[in-house]
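Figure 2 data, in text form.
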Amino acid sequence: MPNFGGIDHLSLSVTDLNRSERFYAEVLGLMPLFDFGTARTLIDRPSGFILALARHEAGTAAPFTELTTGLDHIGLLASSRDELVEWERRFDAFGVTYTPIRDMEFGSHLNFRDPDNIALEFSTSNEVMAGWLEELKTREMTQDEIKARVAEYFASLQA
């Protein structure tokens, strides 16, 4: 099987290029790279992640909804739960719509919206999930083994 190397870039359809570029640059700290007229690209310099923003002439002005087939949300990586708290403070300072941090079985996440209502999320894995993900990089696991581990983990949470 050919190798899947990861995500090269993400492109979002937006209603206002200036407004969206300002949001992703000012709030998330992405650096603008190119302006192609109907599309712009930004980069997160530390990770190399590239985000493209496109305004389609035939596009609608309707806000994003995850209830339409296609994109549900974009999950971005946070290094820790403390970093999620820092993001909450930043969102407050910029007036960004978000829901408070939620602590779940496998980690924590912070959901927020861009100017077109596109659903975004910062998340961080807890130690258990981080360990499992590292292990999956180094060895094959059967679906049965994964299911058994998950069941065991959930049982330990209820004990």
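Caption note: The domain at 1-59 is CATH 3.10.180.10 (2,3-Dihydroxybiphenyl 1,2-Dioxygenase; domain 1).
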